[in-house]
Amino acid sequence: MLVSIAAAAAPLTLAAATQAAATPALPLGAPVRSRELSAIEVFAVAERAQSAGQNEEAIRLYDALTQDRNADVRAEARFRKGMLLAALTRYREAATTFRALLDEKPDAARVRLEMARVLALMGDESGARRELRQVQATGVPEQVARAVGQFDAALRSHKRAGLRLEFALAPDTNINRATEVRTINTVIAPLTLSSDARAQSGLGVRLSGEGYWKIPVGAGISVVPRINSLATFYSKSEFNDITTTALVGLEVQGKHDRFSPSIGHGWRRYGKRSYMHTDVATLEWIHALGRRAQLNGSVSAATTDYQLNDLQDGALYSVSAGVERALSARSGISATLTATRQTARDPGYATASGGVRLLGWREAGRTTLFAAAALQRTEGDAALVLFGDRRREWFASVRAGGTFRAMSVRGFAPYARVGYEHNASSVALYDYRRFTSEFGIARAF
Which of 110, 206, 255, 367 is surrounded by the fewest CB atoms within 10 Å? Predict the structure, then answer.
Protein backbone atom coordinates (compact mmCIF):
# COMPACT_ATOMS: atom_id res chain seq x y z
CA MET A 1 0.00 0.00 0.00
CA LEU A 2 2.80 2.40 0.77
CA VAL A 3 4.41 1.70 -2.59
CA SER A 4 1.15 2.34 -4.43
CA ILE A 5 0.92 5.81 -2.90
CA ALA A 6 4.42 6.71 -3.99
CA ALA A 7 3.73 5.46 -7.49
CA ALA A 8 0.42 7.31 -7.77
CA ALA A 9 1.95 10.52 -6.48
CA ALA A 10 5.08 10.35 -8.64
CA PRO A 11 3.91 13.05 -11.13
CA LEU A 12 3.94 15.55 -8.23
CA THR A 13 7.75 15.39 -7.83
CA LEU A 14 9.30 18.87 -7.87
CA ALA A 15 10.43 20.19 -11.25
CA ALA A 16 14.08 20.48 -10.32
CA ALA A 17 14.43 16.71 -10.40
CA THR A 18 13.88 16.61 -14.15
CA GLN A 19 16.34 19.44 -14.74
CA ALA A 20 19.02 17.78 -12.64
CA ALA A 21 18.69 14.51 -14.50
CA ALA A 22 19.53 16.28 -17.76
CA THR A 23 22.71 17.88 -16.41
CA PRO A 24 26.03 16.54 -17.84
CA ALA A 25 27.84 14.11 -15.52
CA LEU A 26 30.60 15.50 -13.29
CA PRO A 27 33.37 13.51 -11.61
CA LEU A 28 32.37 12.40 -8.09
CA GLY A 29 35.71 13.49 -6.69
CA ALA A 30 35.52 16.98 -8.15
CA PRO A 31 35.44 19.82 -5.61
CA VAL A 32 31.97 21.30 -5.20
CA ARG A 33 31.79 24.98 -4.25
CA SER A 34 28.67 27.09 -4.66
CA ARG A 35 30.61 29.74 -6.60
CA GLU A 36 31.69 27.19 -9.24
CA LEU A 37 28.56 25.09 -9.77
CA SER A 38 24.94 25.97 -10.23
CA ALA A 39 22.32 24.40 -7.95
CA ILE A 40 21.26 22.07 -10.78
CA GLU A 41 24.85 20.87 -11.20
CA VAL A 42 25.16 20.22 -7.46
CA PHE A 43 21.93 18.20 -7.61
CA ALA A 44 23.49 16.12 -10.39
CA VAL A 45 26.63 15.46 -8.34
CA ALA A 46 24.50 14.48 -5.32
CA GLU A 47 22.43 12.14 -7.47
CA ARG A 48 25.54 10.41 -8.80
CA ALA A 49 26.96 10.10 -5.28
CA GLN A 50 23.71 8.51 -4.14
CA SER A 51 23.73 6.09 -7.09
CA ALA A 52 27.31 5.13 -6.18
CA GLY A 53 26.30 4.35 -2.60
CA GLN A 54 28.02 7.45 -1.18
CA ASN A 55 24.95 8.40 0.84
CA GLU A 56 26.63 10.61 3.42
CA GLU A 57 28.22 12.67 0.64
CA ALA A 58 24.81 13.05 -1.04
CA ILE A 59 23.24 14.15 2.26
CA ARG A 60 26.03 16.69 2.76
CA LEU A 61 25.35 18.17 -0.68
CA TYR A 62 21.60 18.31 -0.06
CA ASP A 63 22.26 20.07 3.27
CA ALA A 64 24.32 22.69 1.44
CA LEU A 65 21.51 23.25 -1.05
CA THR A 66 18.99 23.84 1.77
CA GLN A 67 20.82 27.13 2.36
CA ASP A 68 20.16 28.36 -1.19
CA ARG A 69 18.29 31.65 -1.58
CA ASN A 70 15.85 30.05 -4.05
CA ALA A 71 12.89 28.51 -2.19
CA ASP A 72 12.35 25.89 -4.91
CA VAL A 73 15.96 24.74 -4.65
CA ARG A 74 15.68 24.46 -0.85
CA ALA A 75 12.47 22.48 -1.22
CA GLU A 76 13.91 20.08 -3.78
CA ALA A 77 17.01 19.51 -1.63
CA ARG A 78 14.94 18.71 1.45
CA PHE A 79 12.64 16.44 -0.53
CA ARG A 80 15.53 14.40 -1.94
CA LYS A 81 17.28 14.28 1.42
CA GLY A 82 14.11 13.09 3.13
CA MET A 83 13.53 10.38 0.51
CA LEU A 84 17.13 9.18 0.87
CA LEU A 85 16.92 9.10 4.68
CA ALA A 86 13.65 7.16 4.49
CA ALA A 87 15.24 4.64 2.12
CA LEU A 88 18.05 4.24 4.67
CA THR A 89 15.35 3.60 7.38
CA ARG A 90 16.50 6.73 9.24
CA TYR A 91 12.87 7.61 9.78
CA ARG A 92 13.21 10.22 12.52
CA GLU A 93 15.66 12.26 10.43
CA ALA A 94 13.45 11.85 7.37
CA ALA A 95 10.38 13.08 9.24
CA THR A 96 12.30 16.09 10.56
CA THR A 97 13.45 16.92 7.01
CA PHE A 98 9.95 16.63 5.53
CA ARG A 99 8.57 18.78 8.34
CA ALA A 100 11.11 21.54 7.56
CA LEU A 101 10.00 21.41 3.93
CA LEU A 102 6.31 21.61 4.89
CA ASP A 103 7.05 24.62 7.08
CA GLU A 104 7.92 26.50 3.87
CA LYS A 105 5.52 24.75 1.48
CA PRO A 106 2.47 23.48 3.43
CA ASP A 107 0.53 22.73 0.23
CA ALA A 108 3.13 20.27 -1.12
CA ALA A 109 0.86 17.23 -1.33
CA ARG A 110 3.55 14.73 -2.31
CA VAL A 111 5.71 15.76 0.64
CA ARG A 112 2.81 15.39 3.08
CA LEU A 113 2.12 11.92 1.69
CA GLU A 114 5.74 10.94 2.28
CA MET A 115 5.53 12.40 5.77
CA ALA A 116 2.51 10.19 6.47
CA ARG A 117 4.35 7.15 5.12
CA VAL A 118 7.37 7.76 7.36
CA LEU A 119 5.23 8.34 10.44
CA ALA A 120 3.39 5.08 9.76
CA LEU A 121 6.69 3.24 9.48
CA MET A 122 7.71 4.74 12.83
CA GLY A 123 4.51 3.47 14.45
CA ASP A 124 2.87 6.90 14.79
CA GLU A 125 -0.47 5.96 13.27
CA SER A 126 -2.42 8.95 14.62
CA GLY A 127 0.20 11.34 13.23
CA ALA A 128 0.11 9.60 9.85
CA ARG A 129 -3.68 9.81 9.71
CA ARG A 130 -3.56 13.51 10.56
CA GLU A 131 -1.14 14.18 7.70
CA LEU A 132 -3.45 12.34 5.30
CA ARG A 133 -6.40 14.49 6.39
CA GLN A 134 -4.27 17.61 5.98
CA VAL A 135 -3.23 16.63 2.45
CA GLN A 136 -6.87 16.12 1.49
CA ALA A 137 -7.49 19.72 2.49
CA THR A 138 -4.93 20.92 -0.09
CA GLY A 139 -6.63 19.32 -3.08
CA VAL A 140 -4.85 16.57 -5.02
CA PRO A 141 -5.31 14.85 -8.41
CA GLU A 142 -8.00 12.18 -8.46
CA GLN A 143 -5.60 9.25 -8.83
CA VAL A 144 -3.65 10.45 -5.81
CA ALA A 145 -6.85 10.99 -3.82
CA ARG A 146 -7.85 7.38 -4.47
CA ALA A 147 -4.47 6.16 -3.28
CA VAL A 148 -4.71 8.30 -0.15
CA GLY A 149 -8.17 6.91 0.59
CA GLN A 150 -6.92 3.35 0.26
CA PHE A 151 -3.95 4.08 2.50
CA ASP A 152 -6.12 5.79 5.10
CA ALA A 153 -8.51 2.84 5.21
CA ALA A 154 -5.76 0.25 5.55
CA LEU A 155 -3.29 2.25 7.63
CA ARG A 156 -1.76 0.45 10.59
CA SER A 157 1.60 0.63 12.26
CA HIS A 158 4.55 -1.10 10.59
CA LYS A 159 6.62 -0.76 13.71
CA ARG A 160 6.40 -3.76 16.03
CA ALA A 161 7.60 -1.90 19.12
CA GLY A 162 7.89 1.68 20.22
CA LEU A 163 8.93 3.88 23.12
CA ARG A 164 8.07 7.54 23.75
CA LEU A 165 9.62 9.65 26.50
CA GLU A 166 9.07 13.33 27.34
CA PHE A 167 10.56 15.69 29.92
CA ALA A 168 9.33 19.09 31.14
CA LEU A 169 9.58 21.65 33.90
CA ALA A 170 6.11 22.50 35.22
CA PRO A 171 5.60 25.62 37.38
CA ASP A 172 2.13 25.49 38.97
CA THR A 173 0.21 27.82 41.30
CA ASN A 174 -1.86 24.97 42.78
CA ILE A 175 -0.06 21.65 42.63
CA ASN A 176 -2.59 19.89 44.89
CA ARG A 177 -5.75 21.36 43.28
CA ALA A 178 -6.88 22.61 46.68
CA THR A 179 -8.98 25.50 47.96
CA GLU A 180 -7.35 28.77 48.97
CA VAL A 181 -9.60 29.44 51.98
CA ARG A 182 -8.25 28.83 55.47
CA THR A 183 -11.54 27.94 57.16
CA ILE A 184 -14.58 26.11 55.80
CA ASN A 185 -17.96 25.52 57.40
CA THR A 186 -19.08 22.02 58.38
CA VAL A 187 -22.24 20.66 60.06
CA ILE A 188 -20.28 20.37 63.32
CA ALA A 189 -18.20 23.57 63.47
CA PRO A 190 -15.90 25.69 61.30
CA LEU A 191 -12.88 23.63 60.21
CA THR A 192 -9.42 25.20 59.92
CA LEU A 193 -7.40 23.61 57.14
CA SER A 194 -3.73 22.82 57.56
CA SER A 195 -1.29 24.39 55.09
CA ASP A 196 -0.88 21.18 53.05
CA ALA A 197 -4.69 21.02 52.61
CA ARG A 198 -4.72 24.48 51.01
CA ALA A 199 -3.42 25.56 47.60
CA GLN A 200 0.33 25.08 47.29
CA SER A 201 2.50 26.46 44.47
CA GLY A 202 5.60 24.69 43.22
CA LEU A 203 7.98 23.87 40.40
CA GLY A 204 7.58 20.30 39.22
CA VAL A 205 9.63 17.99 37.04
CA ARG A 206 7.27 16.09 34.76
CA LEU A 207 8.20 12.80 33.11
CA SER A 208 5.92 10.87 30.79
CA GLY A 209 6.41 7.77 28.72
CA GLU A 210 4.65 5.10 26.73
CA GLY A 211 5.85 1.78 25.38
CA TYR A 212 4.11 -0.85 23.26
CA TRP A 213 4.75 -4.07 21.37
CA LYS A 214 2.59 -5.28 18.47
CA ILE A 215 2.25 -9.00 17.82
CA PRO A 216 0.42 -9.83 14.55
CA VAL A 217 -1.88 -12.84 14.91
CA GLY A 218 -3.90 -12.63 11.69
CA ALA A 219 -4.94 -10.45 8.77
CA GLY A 220 -5.49 -7.00 10.24
CA ILE A 221 -5.35 -8.28 13.84
CA SER A 222 -2.58 -7.72 16.40
CA VAL A 223 -2.14 -8.31 20.11
CA VAL A 224 -0.80 -5.16 21.74
CA PRO A 225 0.64 -5.01 25.26
CA ARG A 226 1.27 -1.41 26.31
CA ILE A 227 2.29 0.58 29.35
CA ASN A 228 2.12 4.32 29.97
CA SER A 229 3.10 6.48 32.90
CA LEU A 230 2.97 10.12 34.00
CA ALA A 231 4.94 11.36 36.99
CA THR A 232 5.37 14.82 38.49
CA PHE A 233 7.93 15.38 41.24
CA TYR A 234 8.20 18.38 43.58
CA SER A 235 10.64 19.50 46.23
CA LYS A 236 7.80 18.78 48.71
CA SER A 237 7.57 15.04 48.20
CA GLU A 238 4.13 14.82 49.82
CA PHE A 239 2.73 16.26 46.56
CA ASN A 240 4.49 13.88 44.14
CA ASP A 241 1.96 12.31 41.77
CA ILE A 242 2.71 9.11 39.83
CA THR A 243 0.19 7.28 37.62
CA THR A 244 0.93 4.07 35.68
CA THR A 245 -1.37 1.92 33.55
CA ALA A 246 -0.56 -1.45 31.97
CA LEU A 247 -2.89 -2.79 29.27
CA VAL A 248 -3.06 -5.72 26.90
CA GLY A 249 -5.51 -5.81 24.02
CA LEU A 250 -6.22 -6.28 20.33
CA GLU A 251 -6.13 -4.00 17.32
CA VAL A 252 -8.64 -5.01 14.63
CA GLN A 253 -8.38 -3.09 11.36
CA GLY A 254 -11.32 -2.96 8.96
CA LYS A 255 -11.89 -1.12 5.71
CA HIS A 256 -12.98 2.14 7.32
CA ASP A 257 -12.75 1.33 11.01
CA ARG A 258 -10.29 0.28 13.68
CA PHE A 259 -11.34 -1.30 16.97
CA SER A 260 -9.03 -1.61 19.97
CA PRO A 261 -10.42 -3.51 22.98
CA SER A 262 -8.11 -3.93 25.99
CA ILE A 263 -8.01 -4.78 29.68
CA GLY A 264 -5.50 -3.80 32.33
CA HIS A 265 -4.60 -2.45 35.73
CA GLY A 266 -3.72 1.02 36.93
CA TRP A 267 -1.86 2.40 39.93
CA ARG A 268 -1.72 5.90 41.33
CA ARG A 269 0.68 6.96 44.05
CA TYR A 270 0.26 10.37 45.68
CA GLY A 271 2.87 11.73 48.06
CA LYS A 272 4.58 8.87 49.82
CA ARG A 273 1.63 6.47 49.80
CA SER A 274 -0.43 4.37 47.42
CA TYR A 275 -3.57 6.33 46.52
CA MET A 276 -5.69 4.20 44.18
CA HIS A 277 -5.78 0.92 42.22
CA THR A 278 -8.05 0.30 39.21
CA ASP A 279 -8.98 -2.69 37.07
CA VAL A 280 -10.14 -1.42 33.69
CA ALA A 281 -11.61 -2.58 30.39
CA THR A 282 -11.68 -0.22 27.39
CA LEU A 283 -12.82 -0.13 23.77
CA GLU A 284 -11.55 2.51 21.35
CA TRP A 285 -12.94 3.05 17.86
CA ILE A 286 -11.75 5.12 14.89
CA HIS A 287 -13.99 5.62 11.85
CA ALA A 288 -13.08 7.53 8.68
CA LEU A 289 -15.56 10.31 7.85
CA GLY A 290 -14.75 11.09 4.23
CA ARG A 291 -11.26 12.25 3.32
CA ARG A 292 -10.71 15.13 5.75
CA ALA A 293 -12.23 13.96 9.04
CA GLN A 294 -12.44 11.01 11.39
CA LEU A 295 -14.67 9.99 14.28
CA ASN A 296 -13.05 8.86 17.54
CA GLY A 297 -15.03 6.99 20.18
CA SER A 298 -14.22 5.21 23.42
CA VAL A 299 -15.98 3.47 26.30
CA SER A 300 -14.44 2.16 29.51
CA ALA A 301 -15.46 0.50 32.75
CA ALA A 302 -13.29 0.20 35.84
CA THR A 303 -13.42 -0.77 39.48
CA THR A 304 -11.71 1.66 41.85
CA ASP A 305 -10.02 0.82 45.14
CA TYR A 306 -9.03 3.93 47.14
CA GLN A 307 -6.31 3.01 49.59
CA LEU A 308 -7.00 5.81 52.09
CA ASN A 309 -10.81 5.86 52.12
CA ASP A 310 -12.88 2.74 51.50
CA LEU A 311 -16.06 4.84 51.32
CA GLN A 312 -14.88 6.08 47.88
CA ASP A 313 -14.52 2.57 46.43
CA GLY A 314 -16.85 1.78 43.56
CA ALA A 315 -17.07 1.68 39.77
CA LEU A 316 -16.10 4.20 37.14
CA TYR A 317 -17.75 4.32 33.70
CA SER A 318 -16.89 6.73 30.89
CA VAL A 319 -17.79 7.30 27.25
CA SER A 320 -16.56 9.85 24.71
CA ALA A 321 -17.18 10.68 21.07
CA GLY A 322 -15.34 13.24 19.00
CA VAL A 323 -14.68 14.48 15.48
CA GLU A 324 -11.32 15.67 14.16
CA ARG A 325 -11.21 17.58 10.88
CA ALA A 326 -8.50 19.17 8.76
CA LEU A 327 -9.42 22.73 7.75
CA SER A 328 -6.40 23.32 5.54
CA ALA A 329 -2.88 22.06 5.00
CA ARG A 330 -1.83 24.04 8.09
CA SER A 331 -4.77 23.83 10.46
CA GLY A 332 -7.40 21.60 12.00
CA ILE A 333 -9.97 21.33 14.79
CA SER A 334 -11.53 18.68 16.98
CA ALA A 335 -14.55 18.54 19.31
CA THR A 336 -15.25 15.81 21.87
CA LEU A 337 -18.25 15.08 24.10
CA THR A 338 -17.62 13.16 27.33
CA ALA A 339 -19.75 11.54 30.03
CA THR A 340 -18.60 9.89 33.29
CA ARG A 341 -20.38 8.03 36.07
CA GLN A 342 -18.64 7.21 39.35
CA THR A 343 -20.28 5.12 42.05
CA ALA A 344 -19.11 4.81 45.65
CA ARG A 345 -19.96 3.02 48.90
CA ASP A 346 -20.90 6.41 50.33
CA PRO A 347 -23.34 8.16 47.95
CA GLY A 348 -21.76 11.46 48.94
CA TYR A 349 -18.70 10.50 46.86
CA ALA A 350 -20.73 9.26 43.86
CA THR A 351 -20.97 11.64 40.92
CA ALA A 352 -22.16 12.00 37.33
CA SER A 353 -20.56 14.43 34.90
CA GLY A 354 -20.68 15.49 31.28
CA GLY A 355 -18.67 17.92 29.23
CA VAL A 356 -17.19 19.11 25.97
CA ARG A 357 -13.58 19.62 24.84
CA LEU A 358 -12.47 21.77 21.91
CA LEU A 359 -9.04 21.83 20.27
CA GLY A 360 -7.56 23.77 17.38
CA TRP A 361 -4.07 23.80 15.91
CA ARG A 362 -2.22 25.85 13.34
CA GLU A 363 1.22 25.60 11.76
CA ALA A 364 2.76 29.07 11.54
CA GLY A 365 6.08 28.78 9.76
CA ARG A 366 8.31 26.57 11.89
CA THR A 367 6.02 26.77 14.92
CA THR A 368 2.98 24.63 15.68
CA LEU A 369 0.42 26.49 17.81
CA PHE A 370 -2.59 25.05 19.63
CA ALA A 371 -5.45 26.26 21.79
CA ALA A 372 -7.85 24.12 23.80
CA ALA A 373 -10.86 24.65 26.05
CA ALA A 374 -13.01 22.37 28.19
CA LEU A 375 -16.25 22.75 30.14
CA GLN A 376 -17.70 20.09 32.44
CA ARG A 377 -20.69 19.83 34.79
CA THR A 378 -20.56 17.49 37.80
CA GLU A 379 -23.43 16.53 40.14
CA GLY A 380 -23.08 14.51 43.33
CA ASP A 381 -25.60 11.82 44.25
CA ALA A 382 -26.03 12.93 47.86
CA ALA A 383 -24.75 15.36 50.44
CA LEU A 384 -21.40 14.74 52.05
CA VAL A 385 -22.06 14.14 55.73
CA LEU A 386 -19.47 16.59 56.98
CA PHE A 387 -20.57 19.47 54.74
CA GLY A 388 -24.32 18.91 54.57
CA ASP A 389 -24.43 19.61 50.84
CA ARG A 390 -23.95 17.59 47.67
CA ARG A 391 -21.38 18.51 45.02
CA ARG A 392 -22.59 20.72 42.19
CA GLU A 393 -19.71 21.94 40.08
CA TRP A 394 -18.72 23.70 36.88
CA PHE A 395 -15.18 22.99 35.74
CA ALA A 396 -13.67 25.18 33.03
CA SER A 397 -10.17 25.21 31.57
CA VAL A 398 -8.26 26.88 28.74
CA ARG A 399 -4.80 25.98 27.44
CA ALA A 400 -2.53 27.24 24.70
CA GLY A 401 1.02 26.66 23.57
CA GLY A 402 3.47 26.03 20.80
CA THR A 403 6.28 23.75 19.62
CA PHE A 404 9.24 25.69 18.23
CA ARG A 405 10.89 23.62 15.51
CA ALA A 406 13.31 26.41 14.55
CA MET A 407 15.31 25.39 17.63
CA SER A 408 15.12 21.63 17.04
CA VAL A 409 18.10 19.38 17.74
CA ARG A 410 18.27 15.78 16.50
CA GLY A 411 14.54 15.65 15.81
CA PHE A 412 13.46 17.18 19.13
CA ALA A 413 12.23 20.72 19.76
CA PRO A 414 11.34 22.84 22.79
CA TYR A 415 7.72 23.55 23.60
CA ALA A 416 5.85 25.85 25.97
CA ARG A 417 2.28 25.52 27.27
CA VAL A 418 0.22 27.64 29.64
CA GLY A 419 -3.20 27.06 31.11
CA TYR A 420 -5.84 28.14 33.58
CA GLU A 421 -8.55 26.07 35.24
CA HIS A 422 -11.32 26.82 37.72
CA ASN A 423 -13.52 24.35 39.54
CA ALA A 424 -16.52 26.26 40.93
CA SER A 425 -18.06 23.95 43.53
CA SER A 426 -20.92 24.15 46.01
CA VAL A 427 -18.58 22.42 48.50
CA ALA A 428 -15.78 24.80 49.44
CA LEU A 429 -13.25 22.00 49.84
CA TYR A 430 -13.47 21.25 46.08
CA ASP A 431 -13.46 24.86 44.89
CA TYR A 432 -10.11 25.91 43.42
CA ARG A 433 -8.28 27.94 40.79
CA ARG A 434 -5.03 27.02 39.13
CA PHE A 435 -2.52 28.51 36.67
CA THR A 436 -0.22 25.99 35.00
CA SER A 437 2.75 26.15 32.67
CA GLU A 438 5.04 23.62 31.09
CA PHE A 439 8.40 23.99 29.35
CA GLY A 440 9.82 20.85 27.86
CA ILE A 441 11.20 18.86 24.96
CA ALA A 442 9.00 17.16 22.35
CA ARG A 443 9.46 15.45 19.01
CA ALA A 444 9.89 18.06 16.28
CA PHE A 445 7.55 16.49 13.67
Answer: 255
